[in-house]
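User: My instructor asked us to take a sequence, write out its structure as tokens, and then describe one feature of it. I'm not sure where to start. Here is the sequence I was given:
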Amino acid sequence: MRPLPKMLAALGLLAPLGLLAALPARAAIEEGYVPGGAPVLSTWYGRADEAARQADRDYIRGMRPHHAGALTMARDYLADPEARSPALRRLAEAIIRNQSFEIGLLDDVARNLDQPPLVLGVGAFRMALQPMATEGVAQRQGFMRSPIPGVLDAAGPVTARDVQFAKGMTIHHQAALDMARAYQTNPAARNGFLALMNVDIVTDQSQEIALMRTVTAAYRGDAAAVQVDPSMIHGMEGMHGMAVPAEAKREKMKPGAAAPHAHHHH
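Assistant: Let's start with the prediction itself. The structure tokens for your sequence are:
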């Protein structure tokens, strides 16, 4: 799947279809972003296939609310006066910025999937191409991804609330990795834009999990005693039969168990 040349769309000719395979794909999060450059939007197309479109819709139905849940968790954490780890605060801010943008990309893919296929052909030979995504959104919005703090940035005070956030968000991230990998291995899933987005999700969130585990290891108290109630892990409802990870259930607070003070703002 590649962005379809505008001339091809206008002429409706099959002869130039060979160009589709030759055009280089660029990452969904647009690694070629040029600050101040003029936005050039292009539509990604793929062969129209109802099973593939359903796979994309199922993925969006799970990943979009999951991303929204991460925003809620990050905002709750930043609003808590006990949230003191500089690295985790920077991470929460990056999650809000980066995943808000990714939610916009998912919404754009959903809008493209709702569009009718583009039918190209001459005579009896016809091909239906489904709009799948829009490239150039980051350039149009002037968006630059917030960097993820590295493990070397994990120095600083670590409170029980920091550990609670790190443990809860690690569970949340693992569910995102599961969804991304499930899409990548689904034979019906053919949206190259979502596939590239999943590469970013797996790469970024794996690094973020490593950071959160490093911060947790620096806690001077008993990190295992810091409980995370599953109700604090938002956005797991749309995971299409995927239960809340067992790790989250083990973290559920027992009656009388001590837990760090937390504020919830919805």
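For the description part of your assignment, you could build on this observation: Confidence is low (pLDDT under 50) at residues 1-29, 241-246, 248-266. Try explaining in your own words what that tells you about the chain.
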